[in-house]
Amino acid sequence: xxxxxxxxxxxxxxxxxxxxxxxxxxxxxxxxxxxxxxxxxxxxxxxxxxxxxxxxxxxxxxxxxxxxxxxxxxxxxxxxxxxxxxxxxxxxxxxxxxxxxxxxxxxxxxx
Length: 111
Prior knowledge:
Organism: Drancourtella massiliensis
Shape: rod-shaped
Radius of gyration: 30 Å
Keywords: Coiled coil
Low-confidence stretches: none
Number of strands: 0
Strand content: under 5%
Protein name: Relaxasome subunit MobC
Number of helices: 4
Helix content: over 70%
Structural class: mainly alpha
């Protein structure tokens, strides 16, 4: 019994079909990856927003009332001075102090 051989045209057509299937699969995988990345970014954004709300609530509970927008630069200046004067904030938070990045000129601007 002899085997029927496929013609070159048939083999090319088959390869083209396989190539097209692979391209479609690659396109689907790319879309899935994009969707996962989008979902991950959304989760990170929600986690950050939640964390910021908790921090704001903690500050307001210590102050005994709402923090005003004008108070934010004062709070930032206070925290920066704590870091400059001995990394008190980092130590209180149980973190390694970062390099000092504030100069005397920056400190004077905070007042």
